[in-house]
Design goal:
5-stranded parallel β-sheet; globular
């Protein structure tokens, strides 16, 4: 099996036929490497003084975010503008949806304006899929409910590849609120596709039903789950999605499942720490570890996010 990203990407360079990016399901291993290989070029370009290109000149990207976002919405905006697109950020708080307009009516209204791309974040799982069925342009899932967040998984995979030189064979632990995390679901799918060994670690109350069906090894003990891991991916508590008491207290959660120096010592000495953000310091991760540039790649993830979204926009523009 080929392990070199460039070689795998070359095999699939002309086979990326997707009109939308709604989830990891449907992507092949080659598709993922095509996106990451193209994103690698944008990493270099984004570090230059002149970051602008005309690849999407004359195209329009609408950011339609029904949930608050800083990293994802801003990185889509930067990605579109750096490629020369006109970018519209819709204010959902003052949009017609607050006046009773349905998602389908919103989709039909936007479709009549002839955008080329719509990046969507929505609190309901499946909403992005529904919207994609009603428009003529490409739709990119910026996160739907507890379902998926495909560009986050792709930027996480690229971050790992850039720092470790491979993904296949690595042991990667995803820790925290697995139950409510679309990031966890997309990452489990993608990392399995790319040959990693995936573990999930959480208290029973924050594990989905039948967690083994997700395709990851399940741990309820943080230290056992982190044993000899190469990558530790921490997740925040999704308090906005919780209806009930899922943890006794934030202090107790950090004691058992928050990443600190002692728990980190169970992983490999060169294990890297990841977090999709925003970080709740002292809840899921100790501040000192979050800021340790020798171990933490959290800021790398932010940089990779812009590059991956540029790559996705370019690939979808050619369909």
């Amino acid at each position: 099996m080929l392990n070199n990203m460039t070689n795998i990407a070359e095999l699939s360079q002309n086979s990326f036929k997707h009109r939308h990016l709604l989830g990891i399901d449907g992507l092949s291993r080659g598709d993922a490497y095509v996106i990451m290989e193209l994103a690698k070029n944008y990493i270099v370009k984004n570090r230059q003084p002149d970051k602008k290109h005309a690849i999407l000149k004359g195209r329009t990207l609408i950011n339609l975010f029904f949930e608050n976002s800083t990293r994802t919405r801003t990185s889509f905006e930067l990605a579109g503008k750096r490629l020369g697109a006109d970018v519209i950020n819709m204010s959902v708080a003052t949009s017609a949806t607050k006046k009773g307009e349905t998602l389908i009516d919103t989709a039909m209204t936007l479709n009549a304006m002839h955008p080329d791309f719509i990046a969507v974040r929505h609190p309901e799982s499946g909403a992005v899929q529904l919207l994609a069925q009603k428009v003529n342009c490409s739709v990119i899932n910026g996160g739907d409910g507890c379902h998926e967040h495909p560009t986050q998984a792709l930027l996480d995979a690229l971050t790992i590849y850039q720092r470790k030189g491979k993904i296949e064979g690595l042991t990667i632990a995803i820790c925290g609120d697995i139950l409510h995390s679309r990031v966890a679901r997309s990452n489990i799918k993608l990392l399995n596709l790319l040959g990693a060994k995936v573990r999930i670690i959480a208290p029973p109350t924050l594990m989905p039903a039948c967690p083994e069906s997700l395709g990851a090894e399940v741990f309820f003990d943080m230290r056992k789950g982190l044993k000899d891991c190469d990558i530790i991916m921490m997740l925040r508590l999704q308090l906005e999605r919780m209806t009930g008491n899922f943890i006794p207290s934030v202090r107790e959660f950090f004691h058992f499942y928050g990443l600190d120096e002692e728990k980190l010592s169970y992983a490999k000495p060169d294990a890297l720490i990841m977090h999709p953000g925003p970080i709740n310091r002292g809840v899921e991760i100790d501040t000192r570890l979050a800021d340790d540039l020798n171990r933490s790649v959290i800021l790398d993830q932010v940089e990779m996010g812009v590059a991956v979204r540029q790559a996705v926009l370019e690939l979808l523009a050619n369909k």
